[in-house]
Request: fold
Amino acid sequence: MIYNLLASIKRVGMTFDEANLLTVRELLELFGVYIREGKPQRRLATPDEIDKLT
Reply:
């Protein structure tokens, strides 16, 4: 169980120091929200956006 908790903390992008600020119950609620809402999707930049950076 503890390994699943540690893996989930890293999967949502948290550091262990940040996770130490929360209770286990709060972490589980956070994981639930993360699963329901889904991981933010990455999108590819358009050629116009790339041109603006150069």
Summary: The chain has four helices and no strands. The chain has a mean pLDDT of 86. The helical segments are 2-11, 16-19, 24-37, 47-53. The radius of gyration is 16 Å.
